[in-house]
Design goal:
2 copies of one chain form a homodimer.
Chain A (H helix, E strand, L loop, with lengths): L5 H16 L6 H8 L3 H7 L3 H23 L4 H18 L1 H10 L10 H14 L6 H19 L5 H16 L9
Helix pairs in contact in A: 1-2, 1-4, 1-6, 4-5, 4-6, 4-7, 5-6, 5-8, 5-9, 6-8, 8-9
The first copy, chain A, binds a DNA duplex (30 and 30 nucleotides) through helix 3.
Chain lengths: 183, 183
Amino acid sequence: MVRVSTRDEILRVAGDQFARVGFKGTSLQDIAVEVGCSKAALLYHFAGKEQILLALVSTAETALADLLADLDDRDDETAQALAIERFVDLVLHYRREAALVYEVVPQFHSEPAFYGVLQHADKLCAAVTARSGDPAEIIAAQTVMHGIVNVAIDDKWDAAELRPALLRVARRALITTPHHDKD
Amino acid sequence: MVRVSTRDEILRVAGDQFARVGFKGTSLQDIAVEVGCSKAALLYHFAGKEQILLALVSTAETALADLLADLDDRDDETAQALAIERFVDLVLHYRREAALVYEVVPQFHSEPAFYGVLQHADKLCAAVTARSGDPAEIIAAQTVMHGIVNVAIDDKWDAAELRPALLRVARRALITTPHHDKD
DNA sequence: CACTTTCCTGACCGATCGGTCAGAGACTGT
DNA sequence: ACAGTCTCTGACCGATCGGTCAGGAAAGTG
């Protein structure tokens, strides 16, 4: 039996609920019941409901920052290919956190605490368009990225099945260089 | 000054709010304030909060059913091309309703009232994959469709700019026939 | 004119929301 | 044995939630 700290368990359960039914759609009571503790215990570990979300988002923000750092000294085409692959892997690894960044964070559009992660998401969007700046390419990138995050949330498919399929659709939709993608 | 019925105004405002911050994230009070009537007025026109959502979704369901009917007697490739184009136009015309179908309805997974529209969405998904049945193609279709709906919600772009871009990304990602798409 | 229907309001209801607080139990170092 | 810290609980708080209800203003209808 693995000993998991209550704090980690809260984050796991809350991330799952937030991603499935939204921030407002999840009550502290819901989380507490699934964790198996009292509502007051949640508020012992976190200063408030919003702080739980913040902790989850900051996990995603760190992962996103690492990804962007690896893209820095590459040329546009290499960075684009790498960004696509790393983005898919990131989303598959942090399914819930990614869903939060793309689904619930935008609802807090005036919250300064989320500026960082949204800025990172914008940079990543630029990377997967190979910094083209073309509005149509940006729209395409956002379509694919939002789509990937959405599909990754529901557990109809597992990661092994999802990864090649998502990589293929992303490359088809986003890479415009003459040579074609391989499966 | 155009006279709009309170009922239509409620649907407009509620659709907007539901799509932006979710069903649970929108209170009847919020809707009433923006409509400019009392909360009780909402409940005079609709039997409950959920009935407002239901009315909005049934609008989408009707539009979706019309789309599917046009696909019936076509061969797979023609139906696929038509489905993609009609889907984009449908989403651009019913932005809020489409967002509801793809974002908030799945949160009510056990609600029989939504079975119809979800079934329609599944059929449409099959159509845009040219009925291939290949899991990878289904994943691709769901990615693109979810992405399109997501991008269409926020009003960063207008329909005129969005339409060609969405059509292009959808065709690139989903059409596998040897001949390529044109812009 | 009286009568009905349509549309809407303000007051109110119980339930649930996020959050506070005093204190209990377990463990640690002295 | 004692004090202190960490983790957690049950009782409780004011605010807000979705929803109900009696009744009023306005507009048709006889």
